[in-house]
Write a structure and sequence with these properties.
Blueprint: H1 9-22, H2 26-30, H3 33-44, H4 61-77, H5 100-111, E1 140-143, E2 156-163, E3 170-179, E4 185-193, E5 210-211, E6 226-227, E7 232-234, E8 239-243, E9 248-255, E10 266-272, E11 278-279, E12 281-285, E13 294-296, E14 299-303, E15 311-319, E16 324-332, E17 338-344, E18 355-363, E19 368-375, H6 378-383, E20 387-393, H7 422-426, E21 431-434, E22 440-443, H8 449-456, H9 479-492, E23 499-506, E24 512-519, H10 530-538, H11 549-555, H12 559-562, E25 587-596, E26 601-608, E27 624-627, E28 636-637, E29 641-643
Helix pairs in contact: 1-3, 3-5, 4-5
């Protein structure tokens, strides 16, 4: 179930993808195949699609029948899904851990003999696989092409240096790779060096590359990303690495022999970023370099000096040694309070990766970083020098999403006229009245991809490719994008904008990932307040959960019947006052800030209604959460509102 206290955007988007199994009924578990297929579609297909790093495909029902026993055995042993950290779900992006109900469904499926009901040629939906940024095929780099590790060696480590050949600095969000042998080379740690290739390789080593660590010029491998079994490392939107001109890419490759000679080579492709993105830099934590190490009872630990300035933590890359057994990273405040950043109680090197935070974690001046690794024995601990690389960025100034004081409405200089709804009507948006003490009108449906594209000349939706008519709700929309859409409609009617956006940062698709916000008293188009959304959705029903599942199915695209995708708007029944899809299809942004009860300051924006990847629990009227205003995950969209009467007019 979703935590109804504040959770970050990763928690929401990931829990959204798993809510189907968390809310599974007993009848679902009696016939678990649909839950199993949802697990595969949301968690497995990215690597097990036939051409990914997974050793076998899980694309068809026939694949499930053949590989089901192996799949369940890997889950029961803890090897899969490939996610090592524990703790609160949702701190990191791409968390693919399974819930208790999902594991129960797999166990029941096993006890039933792994039945598969559907036609064996039918493919499992992979619509929920994240859509990556456009990749320039000309920026491909060949790495470790000539290295064939010892087939009998369970773990081999070598480093390689490749001249990128760029004439000017490059801004990239990360890397996507294609392996020669999908499961052989299991992890790549990266760094870039200035200048042409001048690295001295080990001349006594008959093989290509050089043994040991890829550390050069006071940089540590991992400073430019770490790629694990998922074959990709990509910073969140709005952040970028800068590769200097004539850079050299140093790649530390960890491989695992499979009993036959195979190449450990891979093709790296750069994922481009904008020059306006915030630049990521590395903060390295390593014993005897950042601070003296403590070695005691098989544990190597180090605590850094206090930070001299605040930083935003974007990602964590660990390189503890192949024989490490557990990893722990904490931040210690000036008062001595501790906060866990990364906790891996059972470390397994072949499943390691870079751990990317969905929302940056603020590190304050005076904070210290504690890094501890436990080994098999004291002798191993004495010989090891574990490394952690924290990828950080300088914090933004006056970002509305992390401001310490609530945003106060700012009145425009004048209000030329009242919103009549003509702009909305011109693109097919029907506004229905909602009777209340302060009457307002609300869009009958969620804003569609077509309507969004007509007004803002872009369509970032994850499901655009499967809907040629673009009648599904616009998804992957940040709160800022929704505000920009409202402003554009207001401009058509010559109204002052409701939202003043300053310091706008856009991603490669032109979508807004960060801005400072002032909310004016303009009566132009806007997002509904949370109270208004509730008046439209729950005005006559205090708790929709009291309605039976069959009735809910008739009105809401939720995970038991949504097939892991959104659906065209208004294809289910409307509610009793005429609104479609208030529950399900996509989460809907509200205008309200989500207030931190500790600081009484806004730290996110309210979302309501659940999405195609949520269970029936989403229809509860108290089901809500707060999400970072820059979040652009596929379950998020919006509908618009407007005041029903000019101020001081007769009702």
């Amino acid at each position: 179930m979703l935590n109804r206290n504040l959770i970050n955007s990763t928690a929401l988007s990931l829990l959204c993808c798993f809510a189907n199994s968390l809310s599974a009924s007993e009848s679902d578990l009696q016939d678990p195949i649909e839950i199993v297929k949802t697990i595969v579609a949301t968690n497995c297909i990215r690597c097990h699609a036939g051409q990914g790093p997974g050793p076998f495909a899980l694309v068809t029902d026939g694949d499930l029948a053949r590989h089901g026993p192996t799949m369940v055995a890997a889950v029961e042993s803890g090897l899969m899904p490939p996610w090592l950290p524990i703790g609160e779900r949702g701190i990191f992006r791409d968390d693919c851990r399974l819930s208790a109900n999902e594991i129960a469904a797999l166990t029941l499926w096993k006890s039933q003999g792994f039945p598969v009901k559907k036609n064996a040629s039918e493919k499992i939906s992979s619509a929920s696989v994240p859509v990556t940024a456009m990749i320039d095929p000309s920026s491909a780099i060949d790495v470790a092409r000539d290295w064939i590790p010892n087939p009998e060696d369970p773990e081999s480590l070598r480093s390689f240096a490749t001249v990128i050949g760029n004439g000017k600095p490059l801004h990239i969000r990360g890397w996507k790779i294609t392996r020669d042998s999908p499961t052989l080379a299991v992890r790549y740690n990266l760094l870039t060096c200035d200048g042409p290739e001048t690295l001295a390789l080990d001349e006594s080593d008959p093989g290509p590359g050089f043994f040991g660590l890829g550390d050069r010029q006071n940089k540590i491998s991992g400073s430019a990303g770490a790629i694990g079994v998922d074959s990709e490392f990509q910073l969140p939107a709005g952040f970028a690495f800068v590769l200097p001109a004539k850079a050299t890419l140093v790649t530390e490759v960890l491989s695992s022999g499979r009993g036959r000679p195979e190449s450990a080579g891979a093709i790296f492709q750069m994922i481009p970023a904008l020059e306006t993105d915030r630049i990521v830099k590395d903060f390295v934590v390593i014993p005897d370099r950042s601070a003296p190490a403590q070695r005691m009872n098989q544990i190597v630990s180090v605590t850094t000096e206090a930070l001299s300035a605040p930083l935003d933590l974007i990602a964590i890359i660990v390189r503890p040694d192949m024989r490490a057994r557990s990893v722990e990273i904490q931040v210690i405040s000036e008062t001595g309070a501790k906060k866990m950043l990364l906790d891996i109680p059972r470390y397994l090197s072949i499943l390691d990766r870079g751990y990317i935070l969905q929302k940056p974690v603020s590190l304050h001046a005076g904070d210290r970083i504690y890094f501890a690794v436990k080994y098999d024995d004291d002798a191993r601990a004495r010989r090891s020098a574990p490394v952690a690389v924290l990828l950080t960025a300088d914090p933004m100034i006056d970002d509305a999403s992390v401001a310490g004081t609530p945003i106060q409405p700012v009145a425009p200089t004048s209000i030329e006229k009242f919103c009549e709804g003509a702009a909305a009507k011109s693109i097919g948006i029907e506004m229905l009245p909602v009777e209340s003490s302060s009457a307002f009108r609300l869009a009958k449906t969620e804003i569609t991809q077509s309507q969004f594209a007509v007004i803002l000349k872009r369509n970032p939706s994850a499901f655009a490719a499967i809907d040629p008519n673009l009648q599904r709700p616009a998804d992957s929309i940040s709160w800022y994008d929704a505000a920009e859409f409202c402003n554009a409609l207001s401009q058509i009617e010559a109204l002052h904008p409701r939202y003043l956006l300053h310091g706008i940062v856009r991603d490669a698709q032109g979508c807004i990932t960060s801005a400072r916000v002032e909310i004016t008293t303009s009566h132009g188009y806007r997002l509904p307040s949370e109270s208004e959304w509730l008046q439209a959705s729950c005005c006559r029903t205090k708790n929709v959960l009291s309605i039976d599942a069959a009735t809910i199915e008739r009105s809401a695209w939720l995970t038991p019947w949504a097939n892991n995708i959104s659906h065209p708007v208004a294809t289910k029944s409307p509610n009793e006052i005429g609104f479609y899809d208030l529950f399900g299809n996509v989460w809907e942004w509200c205008e309200d800030a989500w207030i931190d009860p500790q600081t009484n300051g806004p730290i996110a924006r309210v979302v309501r209604g659940g999405a195609w990847c949520d269970g029936i629990a989403a229809t509860a009227c108290d089901f809500r959460s707060g999400v970072s205003a820059g979040n652009r995950n596929s379950p998020f969209g919006f509908r618009i509102a407007m005041d029903a009467h000019p101020p001081n007019s007769a009702r």
